[in-house]
Amino acid sequence: MKLKKLKKVLAVSLSVLICASAVGCSSSSGGSSTADKDQIVYACTKDIRDINPHLYGGEMSAQNMVFESLVKETEKGIEPCLAESWEISDDGTEYTFHLRKDVKFTDGEPFNAEAVKLNMDAIVSNIERHSWLDMVNEIEENVVVDEFTFKLVLKHAYYPTLTELALVRPFRMISPKCFIDGETKNGVNGYAGTGPYVLSEHKEDEYAIFDTNEDYWGEKPKVKSVKWKVMPDAQTILMALEKGEVDLLYGADGDQIDMDSYKKLESEGKYVTDMSDPVASRAILLNAHQDITGDKQVRQALQYAINKQAIVDGVLNGTEEVADTLMAKSVPYCDIDLEVRSYDPDKAGELLDKAGWKMGDDGYRYKDGKKFEITIYYNSDNSQEGTISEYMQSDLKAIGVKLNIVGEEKQSFLDRQKSGDFDLQYSLSWGTPYDPQSYLSSWRIPAHGDYQAQVGMEKKEWVDQTITDLMIEPDEEKRAEMYKEILTYIHDEAVYIPISYSRTKAVHTSSLKGVTFNPSQYEIPFEKMYFE
Length: 532
Prior knowledge:
Layout: E1 3-5, H1 15-20, E2 22-24, E3 39-44, H2 60-66, E4 71-74, E5 77-80, E6 83-88, E7 94-99, H3 113-124, H4 127-130, H5 134-137, E8 139-146, E9 149-154, H6 161-165, E10 197-203, E11 207-212, E12 225-230, H7 234-242, E13 246-251, H8 259-267, E14 271-286, H9 296-305, H10 308-314, E15 321-322, H11 345-354, E16 358-359, E17 365-367, E18 370-371, E19 373-379, H12 383-397, E20 402-408, H13 410-419, E21 424-428, H14 437-442, H15 449-454, H16 460-470, H17 476-493, E22 496-509, E23 512-513, E24 530-531
Parallel strand pairs: 3-12, 19-20, 19-21
Antiparallel strand pairs: 1-14, 2-3, 2-13, 4-5, 6-7, 7-9, 8-9, 10-11, 11-12, 13-22, 14-21, 14-22, 15-22, 16-17, 17-18, 23-24
Helix pairs in contact: 9-11, 16-17
């Protein structure tokens, strides 16, 4: 992915950013910046937690360091990883993978076709948890052809197969010795993978040490180890960075350091800033299943009411591009001509008048004696989302809408997504390589906020079925038309207020080199980094 030097101050909110990575700069004694330094110290507000690659409780950037898949996503597309090559049957239902013969798990267990089958069977056995990803639903059989040949048999031709096999989870390989009772869905007893790093030490909520896998089959990391250090808040991380204890901040979206802090850091001239091309979509969910926002005309009015350019300039410091549609046109299947709803408070007011919401003497709108009052919920750890909410609150007040702002602890925020108990809530698409197929696939799962926001739409059942059908549609033109129909309907229903297209961002000390971006915003290429 092309790197872009960021000359403006880096306005980052980094949920993935700091947690996905804030890499530190001290050796075991802390503070050295010399070329012989052998440890990257990395600060994060969150612990790595359980990095079982077949579950979703751990930090993805940590899982990516230890576990690998058969194939990998690169700037050039899908390339070999644990599989050296593969063939696809004419009908698209069988994938035959030829495995590397020079790989072992870090516990000494051989990597072979039997190990792949055990991993794939373990994933399928937990199909209910993975049902958001149609790849799992499509697996008919996992077959050992010979010691180093594995065949994946699908129920239908499934076009994103290789892309989804490359995801950070769940299709990563863990040593069968780590299984519990032949399964991984109830936990594992170790983290032996085949990747460039080994988790050598973990003290919960304090730190984790990842050492280089000395027997790694590929090119070994350039720095001996990475220390993932848990820091409780943004101010602590900022102080660590300024003292030279942290070398890198990295990620697509998050909550750790505010804009004023970034401006101060950049003005000091001690840090290098880089930014990727757009990787994901930042939006606000409008719940079509709630009383006020259940009216499509109201949802459309709210889209015209929000000054997205002001948010991009004032909160994101111009580092992101205003989004006119949920998905950027650069995303596969998403180059679609859709109506642009630009900032127009007069238009918003007209729509609300038509919907029966009349302006009262107190400056707020009323309908049938009820005040137009709605609430937006955000993760309280994300200061940027709080600031964006305040911008929206001001815009909506100008058209007579009262917006309440509620910050919640992250788990409460996620629980609210599952329950659908919200008027407005923040949403971030999953980015490359998940968009659009995996992201849209998740819309069918009630545990996701997207599902809950959409469930009030008249054609929600049709949306879900069309998503299911397009995943196994072999004809490229028909598949493209199905994507167009879905995205056009979603746009017309106005259940999303697109805000901007987010980017993966990095701030690092000049002594840290090799800082690059992978296609996925959830992967941090520590193995390419080194000190000079």
